[in-house]
Amino acid sequence: MADLFTNYIDGTWQPAASEQTFTSTSPADPSDVVGEFPASGPADVDRAVEAARAAFPGWKKTPAPERGKILRRIGDLLTERKSDMARAMTREMGKTVEETKGDVQEAIDTAYYAASETRRLFGTTVPSELPDKMNMDILQPVGVAGVITAWNFPVAVPTWKIFPALAAGNTLVFKPSEEAPHCGALLTEVLEDAGVPDGVFNLVQGAGKVGAHLTEHPEIDAMAFTGSSEVGAKIGAACGRDNKKCSLEMGGKNPMIVMEDADLDLALEGVLWGAFGTTGQRCTATSRLICHEDVHDAFVEQIKDAATDLVLGDGLEEGVDVGPLIKQAAVDKVEHYVGVGQEEGADLVLGGSRASGDGLGDGFFFEPTIFTGVEPDMTIAQEEIFGPVLSVFSVSSYEEAVEIANDTRYGLSSSIYTQDVTRSFRAMQDLEAGITYVNGPTIGAEAHMPFGGVKDTGNGHRDGGYGAFEFWTEHKTVYVDFSGRLQKAQMDNVDD
């Protein structure tokens, strides 16, 4: 019998009001049932929001460094449980244990970083234009927040939002992806065991309707979302109608430029990791390779040879490089784009099919896939595939490379490989993206750095670094007049 999991609301574990459940299975072996999880509905969201609202005044008044102590304990517990959590994450969402350990490590780093910032929630004091008066700007929490995240980084990405939000004094309701509910439960157990007070953090499992009700709930003050641009646009519209603060981190179509002077061995490692790590299921995946014509042919051959040697399989097994796609619908989607790429005239030079064979069973495995002869107006050059598909362009100049790199509605991550320092700095300026790497692939994030994008990738806010605290706090301007008389600012202190 499958393990039965529940929601976490107001410090207690409880089933959905409907008592209905849904099943989570392993993408490497769909017959492997991870567990049964609550198919929550509006009543569950209402209870969680009510608990968060009731807990907010006390958590807001808790001294920030005391909140930081709890976050440090969270970091300690994540460290202790890292290996076990990583294996559970791999079982549920597929990427290799090496990658899921990195996922947990990002959460650890974020916990310690957020804890340290609880002693640096700085405001400002500035001179007044009037005598015997002090002006201050202080930071306060936003209030009750909803957090919705994707399955591909089921621990790291939620913590980019949750930990700074808690550090700043907000209370939360968290809805993880229905593709990785066990990962959400494991993270919640850590917060509970670290001593987060009842009601401050709440977990509600379920499908998209849970997120929709959470977004539209009148007692939610802010929403933070990671996922597709289509869903993000709906969340942004709903928050706009209700004047709620909203942070969106959405899709990407990330370019890696390889110039004629690049270190090709270094670039090879980068493109393999960027394009096929996490089976291409990253918003920062290297989905477009823009290669200078002088090295294009030789470099493509290097990539083909190396990609052919990548080992597909269950991410729990030693020696596996590429795990499965998340579900059958993902396989169907990648197959669709492979077909469209061929129909539109791109050259399929590697892969293109669902992988099968020894050890793969009925898992959702897909071959590393490479297209050459890709043109900027092709579908595979413009739309996010979210699979192990690399589209390769040939260009004759840096200017043409940048033009193609920027020719997309997305703007998350970007990369250039070159030994020319002048060209490197030009790329930092010219590439339309929230992130630019020099001599590195388009993937990888550090906890103390802002993460997010421009154009249809985001709405101006950032996860990670102090940018996250800028979202999770509000500025409050304070004037203290100790003159003992009415002073009319801007009215009685300027000579005509």
Distance between the termini: 84 Å
Number of strand segments: 21
Structural class estimated from helices and strands: alpha/beta
CATH top-level class of the largest domain: Alpha Beta
Shape verdict: globular
Q: CATH superfamily name of the largest domain?
A: Aldehyde Dehydrogenase, Chain A, domain 1
Q: Roughly how much helix do the residues carry, as a percent range?
A: 25-40%
- What percent of residues are in strands? 15-25%
> Main sheet: which strands, in order across?
14-15-16-13-12-18-19
Which CATH architecture of the largest domain would you pick? 3-Layer(aba) Sandwich
Compute the CA-based radius of gyration. 24 Å
Q: Quote the average pLDDT.
A: 97
Detailed description of the structure:
The chain has 496 residues and is α/β, with parallel strands linked by helices. It has 14 helices and 21 strands. It has helices at 42-61, 64-93, 97-117, 156-167, 181-194, 208-216, 229-241, 264-276, 293-308, 328-343, 379-382, 398-406, 421-430, 465-472, and strands spanning 7-9, 12-14, 21-25, 33-38, 124-127, 133-141, 144-148, 171-175, 201-203, 222-226, 245-249, 254-258, 286-292, 347-350, 369-372, 389-395, 410-411, 413-417, 435-438, 454-455, 473-481. A seven-stranded mixed β-sheet has the order 14-15-16-13-12-18-19, with helices on both faces. Strands 9-8-7-10-11 form a five-stranded parallel β-sheet, with helices on both faces. Strands 5-6-21 form a three-stranded antiparallel β-sheet. Helix 8 (264-276) links the parallel strand 12 and strand 13. Helix 2 (64-93) packs antiparallel against helix 5 (181-194). The radius of gyration is 24 Å and the shape is globular.
